[in-house]
Design goal:
Layout lengths: L1 H12 L12 E3 L1 E2 L25 E4 L12 E7 L3 E9 L21 E7 L7 E7 L4 E7 L3 E3 L7 E6 L3 E9 L13 E9 L4 E4 L15 E4 L10 E14 L2 E16 L4 E7 L27 H4 L30 E5 L6 E10 L4 E10 L2 E7 L5 E7 L2 E12 L3 E12 L5 E12 L5 E13 L4 E12 L4 E10 L16 E11 L7 E15 L4 E15 L4 E9 L3 E3 L10 E3 L2 E9 L6 E12 L5 E12 L4 E22 L2 E23 L2 E22 L5 E3 L9 E17 L2 E15 L6 H7 L6 E9 L2 E2 H10 L1
Parallel strand pairs: 1-14, 2-4
Antiparallel strand pairs: 3-13, 4-5, 5-11, 6-7, 6-12, 7-8, 8-9, 10-11, 12-13, 12-14, 15-16, 15-44, 15-45, 16-17, 17-19, 18-21, 19-20, 20-23, 21-22, 23-24, 24-25, 25-26, 26-27, 27-28, 28-29, 29-30, 30-31, 31-32, 32-35, 33-34, 35-36, 36-37, 37-38, 38-39, 39-40, 40-41, 40-42, 42-43, 43-44
């Protein structure tokens, strides 16, 4: 292993010139004047003489195997001044067995699919990918080697799929406004096609993508023949109108009407401006709130479209946690003895937001995101004279992210990123700057990545901190490995716009894994990996976290997935966060655990996911065990239902509960958590869908033994503390929605939502009673209707001319 690491460093320092040799397929397109009707018929005369891309080869599971002639695929491409046109014939000797589940946009479901990958700069850096399913559904994404596929990106394009007596056929029209390419008269684009035959769980590509190489985009073929096209004016307006009807047991029914405008503008052939005026996120998915007894905040997924669409540049360095923008207020007011909070806002209104993003032909990616939230106050009540005063809990605040990402040699990049939070008045400001690198040699066998980040907090007392990391890896072949480390100083703080739980430590980690690249007699896929992670608290050099693990992931010949692993913490860990006091720690003992995972083939109407796990603290009657069971049933191509049940039990869990004078109070507690969830969809068509999402969560934590935390991290019994710190938390969420894409990019959606939550200190182990108590004076109802209409400037200009 040391020799391999030394070789890896030598390769990078010596600027290795290895390259993988692969002949690239190519196809030449021709320009047309005839109008093509997108109907999957391919009956226009111009299709007859078009160049054909064929001879697909398998990508997985049997990489490199030619496609069965009975399932040959033929693709043709034409173009005009407005768009490229793709005609596809997908042969199948058993057309009746083609899988074609109807799903909403950007959801593959259980269906055959075809995709075209386009790189307008032919630089091996970024694909624009467009997929059509056998049911007629559309999916699109941006893809890079560093981030993967980002399906939050959406474009406006047209497609049609049709089942035939020979298999199925597709026609696609992809406007130039949905692509990025240079202004040269003669275009050369990177190109690949992909076909998935779902019932066989096989994926084929036009140009062979060698799975031994840790890169896909660089192995694309070539599209020639496009000449003298121009990037159209990319100006899109999306006005919207929403109506909300709110009701609840504790409030009168009231209605609210909202309206606003989203703008997308192509600054040039590479960069796009997105802006939202008067934002409306009322129909975003609910958060899966839990009973959080730990020292760190719960982290939520971002569900607001503006902050999820096309944000791959802003995710560099993990410095942006966009839920900070418009979250709960930043500050809690200082109260006098006779004061209390009578009204504390649950969120901060977002006034407006905009972002500029894109990448030019020289590989320079630029991202600029800016958002402003309004001044927000809480009401403080004086109990003596009943007077009230307003206190600012979040001032007018500006959030900003700036990114410059330079790619080179098709597969490497250097990134500069800065995040900044500026608050009006005397409130704290924050600034974080990062310089990152991701380097691969030309054969994509070796990788070096990492960077350095610096934070500055400007408050009553200003602080500066640093975060540095380095990772070295071999990323191709059957055997792959990585080693790395990270250092975070005491004062590194990126939490004003990012999220980070721990500081003042350094860590070391490694991983080595083996995988099969082609199926064998037992498995279609098989991978075994061993990993280690050790984290040291810098001031004392004590281990504050450690884990050693071995994991197996496999798919058998029937395409059932099996996985499992064993993990252990072989050292005592010094937890400096659970006590909630600086320089105090709790000693966590050694533990040993394992898990198993089974997921049956989703091609079957009935499928099952099963995941039991157990972690046992050695030499103590203390453990955590749980199981997830998730059956799913596809009634037909339109209707499916997924049920999920999670149960977790923590026996003699130990954690902080309170302070008693100068003492830190811990408790041994038993905790049981139940989560029931149902997700169902009924699709009338690929553009008209009903969705149901239901979640009930119940968690109880009962303290059995009260302890005082000693200075050496151990516990001693406490017989004087009598406060009740048990926890009983339940939550309920119900969403029923209807969505209709009535025109390209235009959507009407109707959502009925109700939710409730309760928390108290009494322990009631009766599931039925706790469930029914949720709906006693707690249930809130929302009915909302939202209409968004997509206006393309180029089409609107023609409307005006015709008018």
């Amino acid at each position: 292993m040391p020799n391999k690491i030394g070789l890896l460093l030598l390769l990078f320092l010596g600027n290795c010139f290895f390259s993988f040799a692969q002949s690239k397929k190519s196809i030449t397109t021709t320009k047309i004047a005839e109008t093509i009707v997108i109907d999957a018929e391919l009956n226009e005369g111009v299709w007859k003489n078009a160049d054909i891309a064929t001879d697909f080869v398998m990508f997985e599971p049997d990489n490199g195997k030619p496609i069965d002639p009975k399932k040959k695929t033929e693709v043709k491409i034409l173009y005009d001044d407005e768009a490229i046109y793709v005609g596809v014939l997908l042969y199948d000797d058993e057309p009746s067995k083609i899988m074609k589940e109807i799903t909403e946009r950007d959801d593959f479901g259980t269906t055959d699919a075809f995709g075209i990958f386009i790189n307008g700069y032919n630089d091996g850096q970024q694909d624009f990918r467009f997929f059509v399913t056998a049911a007629g559904g559309q999916l699109d994404c941006l893809a890079t080697e560093q981030i993967g596929e980002d399906f939050s990106w959406n474009a406006i394009w047209d497609s049609k799929a049709k089942i035939t007596d020979f298999g199925w056929a597709i026609e696609m029209k992809i406007p130039y406004a949905a692509l990025r390419f240079s202004g040269e008269n003669e275009q050369t684009w990177g190109l690949n096609f992909v076909r998935e035959i779902k019932r066989e769980r096989r994926i084929y590509t036009w140009t062979h993508v060698d799975s031994k190489i840790g890169a896909v985009i660089q192995q694309a073929g070539i599209l020639n023949g496009i000449e003298n096209i121009k990037t159209p004016t990319r100006l899109f307006l999306i006005p919207y109108s929403s109506f909300y009807l709110n009701a609840g047991d504790a409030q009168k029914t009231k209605g609210e009407l909202k309206g606003g405008l989203d703008i997308k503008y192509g600054i040039n052939d590479a960069f796009t401006l997105d802006a939202i005026l008067v934002p409306d996120f009322g129909q975003t998915k609910f958060d899966n709130v839990i009973l959080n007894l730990g020292p760190f905040e719960q982290q939520f997924n971002e569900n607001r479209p503006f902050f999820t669409e096309g944000t791959d540049l802003f995710s560099k360095g993990n410095l942006l946690y966009s839920r900070r923008i418009g979250q709960t207020p930043d500050f809690y007011p200082t109260l006098s003895e006779n004061e209390s909070i009578s009204n504390y806002p649950g969120a901060i209104n977002l006034l407006n937001a905009m972002k500029i993003s894109g990448r030019n032909k020289d590989g320079l990616g630029i991202g600029f995101l800016n958002a402003i939230t309004e001044k927000t106050t809480a009401t403080v009540l004086n109990s003596i004279d009943n007077s009230k005063r307003e206190v600012v809990v979040s001032p007018l605040t500006n959030y900003n992210v700036t990114v410059f990402d330079q790619r080179f040699n098709q597969n490497s990049s250097v990134t500069f990123i800065n995040t900044n939070v500026t608050r009006n008045g005397s409130f704290r400001d924050a600034n974080v700057t990062g310089l990152l690198f991701d380097l691969n040699n030309k054969s994509n066998k070796y990788n070096a990545s990492g960077g350095i980040k610096s934070s500055g907090i400007y408050d009553v007392k200003s602080t500066n901190g640093v975060n540095a990391s380095l990772n070295l890896a071999e990323t191709s072949g059957k055997f792959r490995y990585s080693v790395g480390g990270e250092y975070i100083s005491k004062d590194f703080d990126n939490n004003d716009l990012g999220i980070n739980f721990k500081t003042n430590y350094y860590s070391l980690y490694s991983n080595i894994n083996y995988r099969i690249l082609n199926p064998n007699k037992l498995f279609n896929t098989f991978r075994i990996s061993m990993g280690s992670y050790v984290e040291f608290y810098k001031p004392t050099q004590q281990i504050q976290l450690s884990n050693f693990n071995i994991n197996i992931n496999s798919t058998n010949k029937k395409n059932h997935y099996f996985g499992g692993g064993i993990n252990t913490n072989p050292f005592e860990n010094y937890d400096y966060y659970e006590p909630r006091v600086a320089n105090r720690y709790f000693v966590n003992p050694k533990n040993l655990g394992g898990y198993f995972y089974f997921s049956s083939n989703y091609n079957h109407k009935f499928a099952l996911d099963l995941n039991p796990y157990l972690t046992h603290v050695l030499n103590e009657n203390r453990y955590e065990a749980g199981i997830n069971i998730s059956p799913r049933y596809r009634f037909n191509d339109q209707f499916s239902l997924v049920y999920s049940f999670d149960y977790a039990k923590q026996q003699n869990d130990i954690g902080f509960i309170d302070f008693q004078n100068s003492d830190i109070i811990f408790a041994r507690r038993n905790r049981n958590t139940f989560t029931n969830a149902v997700n169902s969809k009924f699709s009338i068509s690929s553009v008209m869908n009903f969705n149901l999402s239901v979640r009930h969560y119940w968690s109880i934590a009962e303290n059995n033994q009260i302890n005082t935390l000693n200075l050496d991290g151990s516990l001693s019994p406490n017989t004087t503390y009598t406060n009740n710190k048990n926890s009983n938390f339940s939550s309920w969420n119900f969403d029923l929605s209807y969505s209709w894409w009535f025109a390209p990019g235009s959507q009407m959606s109707i959502l009925y939502r109700n939710n409730a939550a309760t928390f108290d200190r009494s322990i009631n182990r009766n599931f039925g009673t706790n469930f029914t108590n949720l709906f006693d004076d707690n249930l809130n109802h929302v009915l909302s209707i939202s209409v968004r209409y997509f206006i393309d400037y180029n089409q609107a200009k023609n409307w005006i001319k015709k008018g």
